[in-house]
Each structure stands twice: as structure tokens, then as C-alpha cells.
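YM 10:42: Phosphate transport system permease protein PstA sequence, as discussed on the call
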Amino acid sequence: MNKKWTDQLATTVFTFIAILIVAVLAGLLSYILYRGFNQLSLDFLTTPPSSYREGGGIGPQLFNSFYILFLTMVFTVPLGLGGGIYMAEYAKPGKITDFIRTCIEVLASLPSIVVGLFGLLVFVQLTGWSYSILGGALALTVFNLPVMVRVVEDSITSVPREQKEASLALGITHWDTVKTIILPAAFPGILTGIILSAGRVFGEAAALLFTSGVTTPRLDWMNINPFSETSPLNVFRPAETLAVHIWKVNTQGLIPDAREVADGAALVLIIAVLLFNLLARVLGRFVHRKLTSSK
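YM 10:58: structure's back
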């Protein structure tokens, strides 16, 4: 009787906690939607922000967020994938491997402000790039790389070892086994790591304050030359992202409608993260079916 009562109590407590978490999340999203919905318009999404008048938009900041996300994933995914494969399949157990894992855990626990100061020293001052998109993307790569390596390693080690042993028993090389057997089976977990890393890029502000800057120059959207100073594709120009813009608008308060702009930008940021996650899941399932030849 006591065991049954304890089981029912535990079930009730955990159910209540789950409902509470969902309620808090729903309430937060509803509040952001309520505050920012009136700001959503084509002009708000495409026009540049205003420095001192009301009615400005977030067009350049929205583009900068996706551009920095793209560059960060270009650096993070291959390096994280390679590091995770090495740690899971090629690194021999020992003190060196344990030391590497310790370093990865330390890097994963660093505050973003520390990564930003490191990026300021290395990618801004030491390289002479000043504030730039490339510096911000590299700083976010340092920020996300430890998480990506651990997620890839855990995803690979969670694959049943019988699959690897069966492949090796058939005479398939180690690398071909990793490439054709282990990685396709671990792909859902790897995709989760990519989505988590992307979410951190969208919402990060502290590291970008010191690396990509808090301003965006006037851009010529028809100029696709990546080496031109007015081109939006130039990786050596400063770039203010949505998260940084929200911080800037709330702290400076120079425009009359600062609260409305911040609310609208926060809603756009939430929608962008949601759409990215949904799109990544859809593409991930398609790629996983192709890799595993499953329907």
C-alpha cells in the first residue's frame, strides 16, 4: 500500500512540474506575442532602425542575425563533428583524453561575457579586423564548439556497438563504418546539437557586443560584392544583431518608441528561432531517411 501511494504521489508531483513548466513557457510566449504583435509589419521587418525618431525597423539586424548564424554554423558544425568523432572513436582512454574532456567541460561552462572579451582581444585587436561579422562568428564558434563536441560524442557512443562490430566483421574499414553506419544512426542526436547551437547564436548578445559591435553601416542591398564596404555580404563590417539591438534599444532609450521596438524585435526573434527549429527538424528527418534508406 505504501509503495502504491508513493508511486501515485511521485506521478502527481512530476505531472504538476511538467504542467507548471508548460504553463510558464506558454505564459511567457503569450506575453511576448501580446506586446509585440502590433509592431509586426513589412516595413518593420525591412526598414533600418531610427536613431532618434519613432517608427524605425529591424531589417539590417534581422539579416545580420541570420548571416552570423550561417557563418557560425559553417565553422562550428565541421569542427564539432570532427572533434566528437575523434573523442568517441579514435581517442584512446588515458590521461590525455581525460584532460581534453576536462578542457571541453571548462570551455562549455565559460560565461558568454568571458568569450566576448577573449574575442575582443583576439578577433578584434590582435587581428586588426576591428568589429566585424567574422569576429563575431568566430567568437560564437568558441562559445558553441564545446557543446557541439559533447553532443556529437554522446550521440555516437549511444549507437549500439553491435552495429559497429557487425560492420567491422564484414571487413569494412573503421572510417567507412563511422561514415556509413555510425553517423547516420547518430544523426538525430547530432541534429539536436546543431539546433541547440543555433538557438544560442540567435539569443546571444554579450559575446557579440565585444566582437561584431553595436552598429550597422548603411548598406547597399543590391551590392553582392563581399569585398565592398557597403555590401551586406562583407564579413569585415560591423553588424548589430537582433539580440544586441534589443539590448541597445532598452539601455539607451533614445527613440520615443523604444519599448515598442524592443517588444516587436523580441517577438521576431522568437518566431525566427521557432521557424529555424521547425525547418531544421523537417530537413533533418528528410536527410535521416536518405542516410538510413528508411521510409
